[in-house]
Design brief:
- The chain is an alpha+beta fold and 98 residues long.
- It is 28% helix and 34% strand.
- The chain has a four-stranded antiparallel sheet. A two-stranded antiparallel ribbon has the order 1-2.
- The chain is globular.
- The two termini are 16 Å apart.
């Protein structure tokens, strides 16, 4: 399992700098979004599965909904998973595994 959560120091600095990103309804620091993107992980919430991308023009991270399915998590919760876990959760090989 990849340790991706922000440390308290990183979280406090991001809040002071206003560097909190909202992706798939989840508030993430720029460092968390970068780790999710670099490790090819997915955000799973109650509305579906989201893939994190980076825009070089905007210099920011954003999410793209790749699977729309309700009820994958409890309302207001999200999980970060790799492709194998997403495929297992959905019950089909819908995400490419590296």
């Amino acid at each position: 399992m990849i340790e991706w959560e922000a440390s308290y120091k990183e979280l406090n600095e991001a809040q002071l700098n206003g560097d909190i990103l909202k992706i798939a309804g989840a508030e993430l620091t720029r460092g968390e979004a970068a780790r999710i993107y670099e490790n090819n992980l997915f955000i799973v919430n109650g509305r579906g599965v989201w893939q994190v991308h980076y825009s070089t023009a905007q210099r920011t991270y954003y999410g793209q909904n790749i699977i729309r399915r309700s009820g994958l998590t409890k309302r207001g919760r999200f999980h970060v998973m790799d492709a194998a876990e997403v495929n297992r959760l959905v019950g089909a090989a819908v995400v490419w595994e590296n």
